[in-house]
Amino acid sequence: MTARVPRWLLALTGAVYLFLHLPVIVLMIFSFNDSRFSVDWRGFTLQWYERLLQRSDILHGLKMSLIVGLTATAISVVLGTLIALALARHRLRGKRAAEGLIYLPLVTPEIVVGISLLILFATLDWPLGVATITIAHVVFCISFVVIVLLARLEGMDGSLEEAAMILGADEITAFRRITLPQLRPGILAGALLAFTISFDDFVITSFVSGPGSSTLPVVVYGMVRRTVEPSINAISTIILLVSALLIYFADRSMRPVPRRASNR
Amino acid sequence: MTAPAAGPPVVELIHISKRFGHVVAVDDLSLEIQSREFFSLLGPSGCGKTTTLRLLAGFETPDNGEIRLLGEPANQKRPYQRGVGMVFQNYALFPHLTVARNVSFGLEQQKIPRPVADDRVRRALQLVRLDPKLFADRLPGQLSGGQRQRVALARALVLQPAILLLDEPLGAIDLQLRKEMQLELKALNQHLGTTFVYVTHDQEEALTMSDRIAVMNHGKVAQLGTPVEIYENPRTTFVARFIGESNLLEGSAHRRQGNNWSVVLPDHGQEIQVPHHSSIHAGALVRVVVRPEWMQLLPPGELAPGLNTVTGSVRETLYAGPAVHVVVELPGSKSVSVAVHREGQLAKPIRWERGDPTLIAWHPQDSRVVTED
Amino acid sequence: MPSLTRRMRTWIPRSPEQRGWALLAPGGVWLLAFFLVPLLIMLAYSLMPRGIYGGVVPGLTFEHYARFFDPVYLTVVQRTFMWSLGCTLFCLLLGYPVAYAIAHAGSRWRNRLLLLVILPLWTSFLVRTFALIFLMRDTGLINTWLMKAGIIDEPLVILYTPVAVMAGLVYGFLPFMILPIYASLERLDRSLLEAAEMLGASPRARFIRVTLPLSLPGIMAGCVLVFIPALGSFLTPDLLGGAKQLMIGNLVQNQFTAARNWPFGAAASFIVMALVLAAVLVYLGTRDRREVALR
């Protein structure tokens, strides 16, 4: 197969992969560089990471990100799971409209979501803070949870729940004993993805966060605009590694379970 | 074919209708199924047979009409309150539970004590001829199609339901095993005294197993009766075509002589005799169905007193094992298939060749007058 | 648990349709209240006169939309549109060959290569943009190395130029182009190419007459997936473009912070939304027509 791909194409592909990944790799390497201003390599150090621990704004931002991320993930996993069940297992008039409402946040530019929520909260006179950030994050997290779970439910036999019910289990028991055990990997993947995008979000958060509620990305944005110190490289490296790790686990969890011997 | 036991029906559908959007799946359907009966719902896909079964199970609620199970109104009952069993088309075994846990699932819902439940699981597996020692701890993924089928059956039967619903349970099994399972299902029905409601699109299966068959089309019952009645006396062209092979002849009623009408076939002016039927009056269009094996082929010019005869020419012969199907073209391009058995039927070793003139003969009483759907 | 279960059982609606809506309701209400309603309020804001302290006062006016015909703002809208289009084009030129190479890679490599395309989509866009700044600024890696190598004496001005913004846009959205094209190439039935070869088509003809037309759905999807987020770009022009390279996203943000002209910002935001919806509808329209044609 590989032989049929011309050489220039392989070179171009390699260049594109470098373009996509080299900047981040360089950024990470220089988070260990023992020099404040220069981009010359002056030796290995962990001082920029140590310095992060002394910065109260970063630690507070991390705390906010974790609070918002975990809350938004919990809410969106519950709501998203219910929505996915409704769409996958029930005939609904107006299903198309419901689907539109669920997928629209995915194509709507973040800036539009952000300012429309800002206007809403201003109209309602709600103070901006952790609560408003969490509300906003749930909006875009739900869609991801629904997509992941719908894929999982499509691969699952719908008559299993019916079989449980005809054997005497009510809806809740059927869900608990039959649907939930099989949905669990999908729920885990959805939760990991939801947490990742919540943890990484900057644009929407920046509009709906108030004083004292800045999440980690909002703090980092401020640093990027003001200074050039290598602490930014350090915190960037941490953020990147956290997301990459979460995505790795989400990907593993989403893989379909290898089918056992089947004679059908 | 045991006669259905007399007594109150265990399943009653009274003027049931069910629509999905603009599609009418079940259309003003009324049925009664007797206790211990093996009752089949037979029809092509989309005829409403599966919807009917799902209405009985409680997975769908009827738009109109009433469902009664064991004499009690069931419209308001959820599936888990109906006390019916079901075997699903694709088995629907819980993939994360072992065979034993699949079978005991219903017993657990009834809070049956563990030792009693274990014993019933064992007996249910034995009933469907699965060795509990060998299979109890396997997962459904480790079973063959036939074994899964048996587990699904055991899972439903362990609760000893009065009514067992089966949704094309043999559809995914290969032919040899299917024949074997047909016999076993029939035996279980007689042995356990459970009422079986069996959905299938396979007419042969329905004829072999059922006490009674409801042939369905467009959400209605096209004909209800024993397999013999359905096959021997199809009432409509649809039933005649759907069940077995049939030749359809159309003509106009000429005049009545005693209990028979003479009917003129329009294309070639030949006249046949058919028994009286309420739909026939002079000049009416008459549809007549004759099964291929009820017809004989005679050499042209031979006399066949008392029989209907039509002349034609042989178009082709199709070898089909026990019988040879000879396709005969009648004047006017209509053709008729005649099943010639190796023995009997004049016992003449006539070899029919393409283009041979021939005479088709059958008894007037074997002409079945049918109505259009 | 059982008693709770039994109590909950009574809440379960009878009809399947009602059960479906009951499941849909909590999340649906959330999205209505915190997504759709805010969009409508935003639309209302954009049609109301501006208040003294940045808010709005009751009334109906189209003045905020009329302001876009002011050359200053018209330039921004045009720039946003042209850059999004340009970004889409660059992504297509770079992304198609890459998708093709992945689709033709051995199965062992394919998943890893794909993961490397997906990974950037799931890592912080802000951090990735900062990584570009780190490379492109005057004292950045590129300039330092070029000067060390003696190729240039003065640092090249890369950051805060259109080049930087365009590079940032392509860098950010390229995976959205690669993935759908890859998907359509991977689905492509190899026997079609063999059939074309049997019929005497050259490699070039096979690509142009078979592969390319059949990957068109992927190309369309990729273009829409790049074009839409490019239209709404905020971070890239903000961090890489400086004050001179505004796109609508920056204009919107500006109205809600420094300028405190919320209704005008809402109008700008609504224009972005309208452009996005138009792109989605055009895409869905062509897709439906293709599906009809293939039936």
Describe this protein's structure.
The complex is a heterotrimer of chains A (264), B (373) and C (295). Chain A has 264 residues and is mostly helical. Chain A has helices at 7-29, 47-54, 56-89, 95-107, 110-124, 130-154, 159-166, 171-200, 203-208, 216-226, 231-254. Residues 258-264 of chain A have low confidence and may be disordered. With 373 residues, chain B is α+β, with helices and mostly antiparallel strands. Chain B contains nine helices and 20 strands. Chain B has helices at residues 49-57, 99-109, 114-127, 132-135, 145-157, 175-192, 203-209, 227-232, 237-242, and strands at residues 11-20, 23-33, 38-42, 64-69, 72-73, 84-87, 163-167, 195-200, 212-217, 220-225, 247-257, 260-264, 271-275, 285-290, 296-298, 308-320, 323-329, 335-341, 357-362, 368-370. Chain B has a six-stranded mixed sheet with strand order 6-7-8-3-9-10, with helices on both faces. Chain B has a five-stranded antiparallel sheet with strand order 13-12-11-14-20. In chain B, strand 1 (11-20) and strand 2 form a beta hairpin. Chain C is globular, with a radius of gyration of 25 Å. Chains in contact: A-B, A-C, B-C. At the A-C interface, helix 1, helix 3, helix 4, helix 5 and helix 6 of A face helix 1, helix 2, helix 4, helix 5 and helix 6 of C.
Main features:
heterotrimer; A: 264 residues; mainly alpha; 0% strand; globular; B: 373 residues; alpha+beta; 6-stranded mixed β-sheet; 9 helices; 20 strands; 34% strand; elongated
Q: How many β-strands of chain C, per DSSP?
A: 0
Low-confidence stretches of chain C: none
Question: Could you say what the CATH topology of chain C is called?
Answer: MetI-like fold
Oligomer: heterotrimer
Topology:
The complex is a heterotrimer of chains A (264), B (373) and C (295).
Chain A: H1 7-29, H2 47-54, H3 56-89, H4 95-107, H5 110-124, H6 130-154, H7 159-166, H8 171-200, H9 203-208, H10 216-226, H11 231-254
Helix pairs in contact in A: 2-11, 3-6, 3-8, 3-10, 4-6, 6-8, 7-8, 8-11
Chain B: E1 11-20, E2 23-33, E3 38-42, H1 49-57, E4 64-69, E5 72-73, E6 84-87, H2 99-109, H3 114-127, H4 132-135, H5 145-157, E7 163-167, H6 175-192, E8 195-200, H7 203-209, E9 212-217, E10 220-225, H8 227-232, H9 237-242, E11 247-257, E12 260-264, E13 271-275, E14 285-290, E15 296-298, E16 308-320, E17 323-329, E18 335-341, E19 357-362, E20 368-370
Parallel strand pairs in B: 3-8, 3-9, 6-7, 7-8
Antiparallel strand pairs in B: 1-2, 1-4, 4-5, 9-10, 11-12, 11-14, 12-13, 14-20, 15-19, 16-17, 16-19, 17-18
Chain C: H1 2-9, H2 16-46, H3 63-66, H4 71-103, H5 107-118, H6 125-136, H7 141-148, H8 162-187, H9 190-198, H10 203-214, H11 216-231, H12 235-241, H13 248-256, H14 262-294
Helix pairs in contact in C: 2-14, 4-8, 4-11, 6-12, 8-11, 8-12, 9-10, 11-14, 13-14
